[in-house]
Amino acid sequence: MTNYIVCLCHFCELHGPSIIICTQLTTKDKKQDYLLQSNSKTTTNSCSSCQLILPENVINLSTTVTTPKNETQEFISTQYPTSQKRYAALTKLVMKSLSIETNLDLTKPNFFGDNINGFCINKIFKIYDVNSRGLERKYGLMLISDNEIHLLQNWDIITLYFNEYIYQLQLKINETNEKNYAKTENSNNEKYLRRSMIRPKSLIELTNDEQIFVKFHLWAIEVLKDAIR
Ligand SMILES: [Zn+2]
């Protein structure tokens, strides 16, 4: 079976390129191998910017889908892949995707990869935040596969999903920013800005949505369902 991973990554001001959440597809009999154990939580360095925060402190999200052919698919989201090999490959791809952008046009998706670590379509995006260095935070969406041709054949649908996701997320963050700004407008704004310390911030806080990563999981399932047909 071809491997696919949908990933949301982030250039953390404290930890550098980090995986926030990745969604993988597997079969029922292999499901257990993809789930993180509760004691594995401490193996990665993370702050609220790059940590995966799920409701009720769970560390895995899984959804079972039955296909029209009556096959069972298991979609699993975790902060990082349990497989050492995939973890190493994904880390390399994340590092590359968040660091090679200097010459790139951010409005366009990007494609790179090799036979060892896999191939990847990614799109980098930035969001405005008063508590970040340079007033912006950098994220990336990635779809990774060891099947280069299949990935490129689905370029249009994958990038459509990415653009829509980024648009909706930025819209939500702008709304939250506006609400926060309105709240402080009556008080002295200059004082407010000075008080706005640089600090790590989760997408949960930025979007004011506790379900934001659960929603990512559900969205990633749709991406995978449409992109690997
Ligand atoms: Zn961090």
Please, could you describe this protein's structure?
- The chain is α+β, with helices and mostly antiparallel strands and 229 residues long.
- It has one domain (4-227).
- 37% of the residues lie in helices and 26% in strands.
- It has seven helices and seven strands, in the order ββαββαβββααααα.
- The chain has helices at residues 31-34, 84-99, 148-153, 155-185, 189-195, 203-207, 212-227; strands spanning 4-12, 16-26, 61-66, 72-78, 110-114, 118-128, 136-145.
- Strands 3-4-2-1-7-6-5 form a seven-stranded antiparallel β-sheet.
- It is globular.
- The structure holds zinc ion.
Keywords:
229 residues; alpha+beta; 7-stranded antiparallel beta sheet; 7 helices; 7 strands; binds zinc ion
